[in-house]
From TrEMBL:
The keyword Transmembrane applies. It comes from Hyphomonas johnsonii MHS-2. The chain crosses the membrane at residues 26-46, 52-73, 94-116, 148-176, 197-223, 235-256. It comes from the Bacteria. Keywords: Membrane, Transmembrane, Transmembrane helix. The lineage of its organism: Bacteria, Pseudomonadati, Pseudomonadota, Alphaproteobacteria, Hyphomonadales. The keyword Transcription regulation does not apply. This is Glycerophosphoryl diester phosphodiesterase membrane domain-containing protein.
Length: 273
């Protein structure tokens, strides 16, 4: 187990792995792009996101994404281990854990501005106050010490989510390598390495995600409205996120042998199969 992770080495290896796994996973990327476009059309339709069709297409997006991830991990690891169900189980477990943590953070950050406004003396604001007036009051409060408290709390909330994500970075790669669902069993493996993994993630997660969001926002105003535009928004949005997903998987695979314990007998048998 490495004592000190090579940040630039991890980033370079992650992108090399991403490039190597792009072509083998094209069919599943195509399925994800198609499902994302159709889901966006259904979501923006008159019936909205609660329709049966939209929910079915959301499930299709999830399944295509898991199948693509499985293909990526297998190519990067160089072994045909893991299964769709084990990786889907791991993803659902992570999503549930993130939802649980996010609810508490969002709830706290949602009530904190009201508390700070009350403490700062803005007693003229109440439950019936126009939201625009409340937002203006919050903006006026930002340059004050109360605003600093709010900004620090938001930064800590974001840090907590990022820390949680970094500590669970190896889940997908470890699940595919071992052939069984691993979630919090990978938590100890990243202990003491969150900072360097976070620095590496700037080049594999943050940068490609920021580029994807920026390009998607620029295209949104060009595509216009309608079903065709909705399909293009969803499909292009999924395609723009491909480098983010590929490089993110690459970082996990690059860090896995440096941080994980040696494969046990079960993993060795699965790898040889």
């Amino acid at each position: 187990m490495a004592d000190r992770l090579p940040v630039t080495g991890l980033v370079a290896e992650a992108w090399r792995l991403a490039a190597r796994s792009f072509v083998p996973g094209l069919r599943w990327l195509g399925a994800l792009v198609l499902a994302s476009g159709l889901y966006t059309v259904a979501l923006e339709s008159a019936s909205g996101g609660g329709s049966v069709l939209a929910l079915a297409l959301l499930a299709a997006v999830f399944c295509a994404g898991v199948a693509w991830s499985l293909s990526i991990y297998r190519t990067m690891l160089g072994q045909q281990t893991g299964s769709f169900l084990s990786l889907a189980h791991a993803n659902i477990s992570i999503y549930t854990a993130f939802l649980f943590v996010s609810v508490f953070i969002v709830f706290f950050l949602g009530i904190l501005p009201g508390i700070l406004l009350e403490v700062s003396g803005r007693t003229d604001l109440g439950a019936e106050t126009d939201p625009a007036i409340v937002q203006a009051a919050i903006r006026d409060m930002l340059p004050t010490p109360y605003g600093a408290v709010l900004l620090i709390a938001c930064a800590l909330g974001l840090w907590a989510l990022c820390f949680f994500a970094i500590r669970l970075l190896l889940v997908g790669a470890a699940t595919v390598r071992s052939g069984e669902t691993l979630v919090f069993r990978t938590w100890p493996w990243t202990k003491g390495h969150a900072l360097r993994l976070g620095l590496a993630a700037l080049g594999t997660h943050v940068l490609p995600f920021a580029v994807a969001v920026g390009l998607n926002a620029a295209l949104a105003g060009v595509l216009g409205d309608g079903s065709v535009a909705g399909f293009l928004r969803g499909s292009i949005g999924a395609l723009l996120l491909a480098p983010f997903i590929l490089a993110g998987h690459g970082l996990a695979v690059s860090a896995l042998p440096r941080l994980a314990p040696a494969p046990g007998p079960t993993e060795e048998i699965a790898s040889a199969a």
